[in-house]
Task: structure prediction
Amino acid sequence: MCGIVGYLGDRQAFDILIKGLHRLEYRGYDSAGVALVNDDGNLNVYKTKGKVKNLEEYCKDKNISGTVGIAHTRWATHGEPNDKNAHPHYSQSKNLAIIHNGIIENYLSLKTFLINKGYEFKSETDTEVVVQLIEYVMQEQKCDLYKAVHQALSQVVGAYAIGVVERNNPNLLIAARKASPLIVGVGENEYFLASDASPIIEYTNKVIYLNDEEVVKIERNQEIEIRNLKSVKLQPTIKELSLNLDDIEKGGFDHFMLKEIFEQPKSLALCMNGRLNKELNEIKLSAITDYYEKFEKCKRIVITACGTSWHAGLIGKYLFESLCRIPVEVEVASEFRYRNPVILPDDILIAISQSGETADTLAAMELAKKQGAFVFGICNVVGSSVARMTDTGVYTHAGPEIGVASTKAFTTQVAVLVMTALAVAKKLNTITEEDYHRIVKELSVIETKIEEILKQVDTIKDISKIFTYAKNFIYLGRGFNYPVAMEGALKLKEISYIHAEGYPAAEMKHGPIALIDEEMPIVVVAPHYAMYQKILSNVQEVKARKGRIIAIVSQGDEDIKKNADYTIEIPSTEECLSPLLTVIPLQLLSYYIAVAKGRDVDQPRNLAKSVTVE
Ligand code: M6R
Result:
């Protein structure tokens, strides 16, 4: 939620900051702003409602000089998206400017305190309170900015990644983080600051991942200095990024979402690389080899996540229960964290997150950890908070996912769950050798089957155009494909703004059937497995009420074709792997419906890529 960028070096900062904002725009796009300190000692702040391109336009006739600066793209929490709530925020004297990603929970009490001290506020944001507090501390204690940031943040409750610059000090940039991501890029005579690596990779692959409650002093021509909030000096650890510039460009596709849909064969191959041995037909997950006894001992697994990752978790339930015979509960993290859940001594908590920064998921993990659960993480972003908080974990290696609607993250999460469940099942002897090798073999060729589905893009595009009229959609599925129905519905609503519901197909007759008329499109995920005959009956129930059916079926299925208005075929595979295939046409369907409706697919309204606030 919100993207922040900073620069201090020999080059002019503005272009670097703007480019960085474009790369981080997936995190929020309600407003954007920049603050620059130039050699004359001026601190200029420019900000405006809307996207980064509006900011660029706004800055055309402004003085944008300066070799140190900070910039921000906002996803609004406190205060509506407008110019005055846009970041950066000045302090009272306008000597300081701040950018912030996160939420300050005690901002009201701090604000009251500062108002009583004579401070005036220009915005409704929690962020302005922090910059005012820093200035107050500087004036009261007659200390420098670095010290004041330490002191001020010691009084702050909440989550923050901040960058602060000072008028008359073109040689200094201060930053800090707690529970919101922040990376420092280390170049030749220059430093970068960003919420993720994408604004940095073009300039350097050397980075420092800041930890919670660390404050960094970036000074021109100096080594950087990091201290924790207690002012203890820390040794920075420089890591090398393995990201490529191509990974974060659209590469000829109209949208990142489309690129990421088409990347799935590759991302799944990367996800399985070194883990699935095609010659031996075996899975080896180094993350769990030392922890099999945890799975042997546990009485249940609890999976927690949000949004699309939660849907992957629901598939995880089917996988662990059917392959490993371990009971599984799956819960959205925002509910889990607040309902005082029962956590048993040998519980394993599996947390799933693309970004690794989702606040609710992190809080759920923290809670489970405190109560003694073993925490296993599945996440995409290397070095993210989820990755750092787990006892062990598996990266999905999907590569950067920039489209707000999650696609390749989902399929790689499912692949990791499949591999984990298969490895555990083998160890626990809950799967026969024959079944194990057959499923592993199928998994090893899943990419080629996805490629086959992607070839049907034009058919799916044509079907999409027919349904742009719809105000509602119902998605139905059963077993492993019930979560896929929910995922299809989520994809459609978030990018096309069409209301959609995902249901277990047999539940339809308990309510949603009342919605069906000749206007209502029903997407039925109905590949040919154990429940096929049942779902065929559900299809007939829809047809009898004149619903318009789009069916995702196994290749060669003639029965459903008789009732469905449109069918999209998927190649045959093992049932437990079928979500990896059935979800692909649903992603494409939602994408093309949204495009046909003229929606902003990569940056849908009100959303942001990672929800780092409650
Ligand atoms: O980064 P995470 O996987 O933790 O994010 C969870 C959800 O916010 C995310 O999946 C969201 O639902 C996506 N927009 C879905 O496409």
